[in-house]
Amino acid sequence: MKYSKYVSIFFLMLSLQSCSDFLEQEPGTQTSIDELLQNKTGVLQALTGLYTEVEANVRPDRYAAYADLQGGNIKFAPAATGGLRGQISPAINLQQVYSFEDVALTSNFKSFYDSSYDIINQANLILEFTPALTDATEAEKNQIKAEALAIRAYAHFLLSLVYSQDYKYTPDASHLGIIYSTESIKSGIQYPARKTAAETYTLIINDLQTAIDSYSDASLLSGPAYSFFNKKNTKALLARVYLQKGDWANAYEMANDVITNSGVVLTSKETFIAEWEKPDLPVSEILLEFSIPKDTEGNVSSSMTQTYGYTSDTNFEKYTASNDLVDLYESTDLRKQLFLTKSLFTIVSGVQTNLNYNFTKKYQNNAGYVASRLSEMYLIRAEAALETNRADLAMADINIIRARANASLLTNTNNLKENIFLERRKELCFEGFLFFDIARMHKDVSRNDGCIATVCSLTYPSLKYVLPIPTFNTNLNPNLQQNDSY
């Protein structure tokens, strides 16, 4: 008990130090939390740093490639150079996860789990200090509160996708959700238990609804508007949460609100390819893309290109599109042009050959992480319409997306649920949806082309649809229950 107490105190100190990382003002100096967050300038500095932490958590391959890799949209490219040139192996960051063999003690996702709760802790600190600001107006304080709440809800939602079975895994969503943290660790050491999935989603939705009601006219931070949470992209996130929950009426209403009132319009058919090929900037229909980090001279230090990029035949990344995905597109589909096909030196069963690999054009040229864009709202509205017995409206929305892509239009509502699933797979590939869609729709995982995992398929339901909570965390918190099978 005494040892556990000392470990807990040590962890608290580490956590507070981690919290203070985003408070660093200049090399070699740091400001205490209490000192920095006592005025508006300090709180905004902290909020800016919090967005940096969020971007750094979702952009690397560990999370960004997870859903597409597990679902079957991705296969690995061969090593580009060196003694292993031509050989194919899983990416080191996802090696255990890829075969559905992640281990709690050495989990591939420990940094994601820890960083997510660190982000939540930082958001809670901002929420705790902001009401007492004397140099900010009520509108300004409400805006800060709204963005911090949206970030807190977003981090919890991502954690629930990775560590909790889909909402309808049990009829009443009484299965384990996640720990939902609404107080900073600065308030003292706590040992909370996991909420149920139903309770988790209630808390996420409450945070998002409160944020939506609190937004002022604009963010107080400097940078492009699409880089920060605002009323329209928070509504988009809420639509996604309702979809994941299976709350069809609210999913339809929220997606329709974004489509109708956000002021954002779908990228046109004529500019669709060019928009994705733009260097540095997101597509015109973006709702949320966190700004990528840059050095003091304005050079990009890291981006999604480090996961999906192709520069030359001797300089490319490991993640490419599987033929399981590419073969879904019709020959006329513009989205098929979003693949850069390259013939690369590959060793197959000891034989040297050249094989074609398809790199996505979505993430070349210093691309950022696409957190939300308008086409997803049409796909949410379509699925929600179908589930509320409005198949004609669902087909109309699917055809809007298909017409923009120059794909053949649906002419009847037969097999519309499967068509919606496939349309989401084609339209939203490499944007972090496929595996979660498979789980949400209670489908099986089937990975064929290029699968080199020890396990290439899963039959729903399976305990392996979620990852293990890292052992360090379950050891630290005796009330933190591990996922079954781990």
Strand content: 5-15%
Helix/strand-derived category reads mainly alpha
**Unreliable sequence segments:** 1-30
From the alpha carbons, calculate the radius of gyration and give it in angstroms: 22 Å
SSE order in H/E notation? HHHHHEHHHHHHHEHEEEHEEEHHHHEEH
Mean pLDDT across every amino acid position: 93
The span between the termini is: 25 Å
Number of strands: 10
Major β-sheet profile: 2 strands, antiparallel
User: What is the share of helical residues?
Assistant: 40-55%
Neighbour order of strands in the largest sheet = 1-5
Structure description:
With 486 residues, the chain is mainly alpha-helical. Helices cover 45% and strands 9% of the residues. The chain has helices at 2-21, 33-36, 40-58, 61-64, 66-71, 95-98, 110-129, 138-163, 197-214, 231-245, 248-261, 272-277, 305-308, 323-326, 374-387, 391-404, 416-427, 434-440, 471-476; strands at residues 74-76, 286-289, 310-312, 315-316, 319-321, 339-348, 351-360, 370-373, 445-446, 457-458. The strands form 5 sheets. It has a two-stranded antiparallel ribbon. The protein has a two-stranded antiparallel sheet with strand order 2-8. A two-stranded antiparallel ribbon has the order 3-4. Strand 3 and strand 4 (315-316) form a beta hairpin. Helix 3 (40-58) runs parallel beside helix 8 (138-163), helix 10 (231-245) runs parallel beside helix 15 (374-387) and helix 16 packs parallel to helix 17 (416-427). It is globular and about 70 Å long. The protein starts with a helix and ends in a 10-residue tail after the last helix. Mean pLDDT is 93; it is low at 1-30.
